[in-house]
Amino acid sequence: GQGCYIVGHSVLNPGVTIGDGAMVLPMSVVTRDIAPGAIVAGAPAEPIGQVDEAFIAGLQAELQAQRQVC
Fold first, then answer.
1. Could you give the CA distance from residue 42 to residue 20 in angstroms, rounded to a whole number?
2. What percent of the chain has pLDDT over 90?
Protein backbone atom coordinates (compact mmCIF):
# COMPACT_ATOMS: atom_id res chain seq x y z
CA GLY A 1 0.00 0.00 0.00
CA GLN A 2 0.91 3.64 -0.29
CA GLY A 3 2.29 5.34 2.81
CA CYS A 4 2.36 2.19 4.91
CA TYR A 5 4.94 1.62 7.66
CA ILE A 6 6.71 -1.70 8.01
CA VAL A 7 9.00 -1.62 11.02
CA GLY A 8 12.24 -3.61 11.31
CA HIS A 9 12.52 -7.35 11.74
CA SER A 10 8.99 -7.93 10.41
CA VAL A 11 8.28 -10.78 8.02
CA LEU A 12 5.75 -10.53 5.18
CA ASN A 13 4.63 -13.80 3.63
CA PRO A 14 4.63 -13.86 -0.19
CA GLY A 15 1.45 -12.56 -1.76
CA VAL A 16 0.09 -10.56 1.18
CA THR A 17 -1.23 -7.06 0.53
CA ILE A 18 -0.64 -4.18 2.95
CA GLY A 19 -3.35 -1.51 2.74
CA ASP A 20 -2.70 2.22 2.40
CA GLY A 21 -1.57 3.84 5.64
CA ALA A 22 -1.30 0.53 7.52
CA MET A 23 1.35 -0.02 10.20
CA VAL A 24 3.17 -3.29 10.80
CA LEU A 25 4.89 -3.11 14.19
CA PRO A 26 8.33 -4.60 14.95
CA MET A 27 8.90 -8.34 14.75
CA SER A 28 5.46 -9.05 13.29
CA VAL A 29 4.79 -11.99 10.99
CA VAL A 30 2.18 -11.01 8.41
CA THR A 31 0.41 -14.09 7.07
CA ARG A 32 -2.69 -12.49 5.50
CA ASP A 33 -3.77 -9.21 3.90
CA ILE A 34 -3.80 -6.10 6.09
CA ALA A 35 -6.68 -3.62 5.71
CA PRO A 36 -6.02 0.06 4.95
CA GLY A 37 -5.15 1.94 8.12
CA ALA A 38 -4.84 -1.17 10.28
CA ILE A 39 -2.17 -1.38 12.99
CA VAL A 40 -0.97 -4.96 13.39
CA ALA A 41 1.50 -6.74 15.67
CA GLY A 42 2.51 -10.24 16.71
CA ALA A 43 3.27 -13.61 15.23
CA PRO A 44 1.02 -14.11 13.44
CA ALA A 45 0.15 -10.42 13.07
CA GLU A 46 -3.26 -9.47 14.46
CA PRO A 47 -5.04 -6.09 14.35
CA ILE A 48 -4.46 -4.07 17.52
CA GLY A 49 -5.74 -0.70 16.37
CA GLN A 50 -6.68 1.58 13.52
CA VAL A 51 -4.99 4.69 12.14
CA ASP A 52 -7.21 7.78 12.28
CA GLU A 53 -9.37 8.14 9.13
CA ALA A 54 -8.34 11.80 8.75
CA PHE A 55 -4.69 10.72 8.63
CA ILE A 56 -5.42 8.22 5.85
CA ALA A 57 -7.43 10.80 3.86
CA GLY A 58 -4.60 13.33 4.18
CA LEU A 59 -2.03 10.73 3.16
CA GLN A 60 -4.04 9.77 0.08
CA ALA A 61 -4.44 13.44 -0.93
CA GLU A 62 -0.70 14.01 -0.52
CA LEU A 63 0.16 10.94 -2.60
CA GLN A 64 -2.26 12.06 -5.32
CA ALA A 65 -0.65 15.50 -5.41
CA GLN A 66 2.81 13.92 -5.74
CA ARG A 67 1.63 11.82 -8.69
CA GLN A 68 0.50 14.96 -10.50
CA VAL A 69 3.94 16.56 -10.08
CA CYS A 70 5.88 13.59 -11.51
1. 20
2. 61
